[in-house]
Amino acid sequence: MFEQLLQEIRNHSRIILHRHSNPDGDALGAQMGLKHILKENFPEKEIYVVGDSSRRYGFMEEEGMNEIPDDLYHGALAIILDTSAAALISDDRYRLAARTARVDHHIFCEKIADLEITDTSYESCCGLITEFVLECGLTLSSAAARALYTGMVTDSGRFRYDSTTSNTFRLASELMKVPFDTGEIYGNLYADDFSFIRLRAQFILKIQFTGHRVAYIYTDRAEAESYGVDTFTISRGMVNTMGDIRGIDIWVNFTETENGVIAELRSGRYNINPVATKYGGGGHAKACGATLKDRAEAMAMLEDLNAFDKE
Fold it and tell me: DSSP letter string over the chain?
């Protein structure tokens, strides 16, 4: 599956790694993990990571993202990770690269690179990158293994989501053959400040239900700004406050921003991706998202979820 990607890497002396904006643990894990893999196995090459930063997963960014001029893309290979659609890519200068490749595990929406590697059977993009290492016989450093394992943990919900398979555990086992501190990872991921716990409690009290038991939270822009946290914390960070309510199979979190309303859709049972796709979004069958124009469009999406065919 990865022969062409390996050849593209060998053919280019400069490689620039992209992923989606508002990065989660999987996006950053794949980006940082692949950076270390390339530096370890191809020390003669220039490797750069670009994109916006994340407060929630900032501990994964190490020295941070690289700020590079446009001319570094000339003759370079740009690899896009964990991204289903072009509109979601952080830093659209990937188009300036001589060649582009994408590695992703989301449902395919559109072709965005010269070389496309998409496989939805993997729980995470980090799982795919781990497979790349094993298939190509590359050396895996402790830093790379730590980053990939972190992304695998976050996108599988600590190996709880039904995207988790025997293959997930096989790949995690391979990563754990390289020494790194899992306790440190879990401490960074799940030890919360009391202020965050209070915020989570506030969002639990905001939960509402439609007539067909779709749970939802709507946060307008003024309220979102009043919390003093980043958008990721409110949108993706709070969506699963609704995830363990008995009798709730679909839930959605709406967050107003200056660029529209971010919708995070989840289901424990049904394929809700068609609803996200209808509104220009995408993702997985049971975990997806979209950016909507306004509250009216958010309520239209909610009605689509409320009328969702559950048969």
Answer: --HHHHHHHHH-SEEEEEEBSS--HHHHHHHHHHHHHHHHH-TTSEEEE-S---STTGGGSTT------GGGGTT-EEEEES-SSGGGBSSGGGGGSSEEEEEE-SPP----SSEEEE-TTSS-HHHHHHHHHHHHT----HHHHHHHHHHHHHHTTTTTSTT--HHHHHHHHHHTTS---HHHHHHHHH---HHHHHHHHHHHHT-EE-TT-EEEEEE-HHHHHHTTS-HHHHTTTTGGGGTT-TT--EEEEEEEETTEEEEEEEESSS--HHHHHHTT-EE-SSEEEEEESSHHHHHHHHHHHHT----
Under 8 Å between Cβ of 55 and 230: yes
Question: Which strands, in side-by-side order, build the sheet including 287-292?
Answer: 208-209, 214-219, 250-257, 260-267, 287-292, 282-283
Task: Quote the tokens at residue 216.
Answer: 């939802």
Q: In what order do the strands lie in the sheet with 115-118?
A: 46-49, 14-19, 77-81, 99-104, 115-118
Task: Determine phi and psi for 58, rounding to 5 degrees.
Answer: -60, -30
> Does the model's pTM come out above 0.85?
no
Q: pLDDT tens digits, residue range 259-302? A: 999 999 999 889 999 999 999 998 889 999 999 999 999 999 99
Return d(Cα 238, Cα 213) in angstroms, integer.
18
